[in-house]
Amino acid sequence: MIMQSPNQPTTFTPDADSSRQLRDAFGKFATGVTVITAPSADGPVAIVANSFSSVSLDPALVLWSVDRAARRFPYFEMADHYAIHVLAAEQHDVCKLAARDAHMLHDHAHHLNADGVPLIDHCLARFECRRVAAHDAGDHVIVVGQVQRTEMRDGQPLTFFAGQFGSVD
Length: 169
What we know:
By secondary structure, the chain is mainly beta. Helix content is 14%, strand content 41%. It contains three helices and twelve strands; from the N terminus they run H-E-E-E-E-E-H-E-H-E-E-E-E-E-E. The strands form three sheets. The protein has a seven-stranded antiparallel beta sheet with strand order 3-2-6-9-10-5-4. It has a three-stranded antiparallel beta sheet with strand order 1-11-12, with no helix packed on it. A two-stranded antiparallel sheet has the order 7-8.
């Protein structure tokens, strides 16, 4: 591997031996941070995802992806309804809780929508969705949802870049 410098980028072919480098390269794309919530037989569940994107305005569609190897995958594979919460900069604690514990909502304030989906308040945006498709994508599944209800407010986003949390000033 060639050491990276401002004038000489690191170049590699993605393979099993360069997965850390590939992860670092993906980390060069600054993203917002979301927490996805869904109902389950074990109670409300949550997972952190930065793989969120809008897809279509008409119909209103969004996507996110989940790792098949994630312990939480079975919950979200089965979820017909879920909510995507775009976190505000001051919600770093919500992100940390959701990253540590799928069942963090047992101890965190939330309420349920008409579909039984747990909703977290004070997010920059929230998209209440009905799953309309799931696509195999290597070691992940891309979940496409139709947005049924949306809520938004002003504020600064929680961001993720190069393995670090931050915000936009």
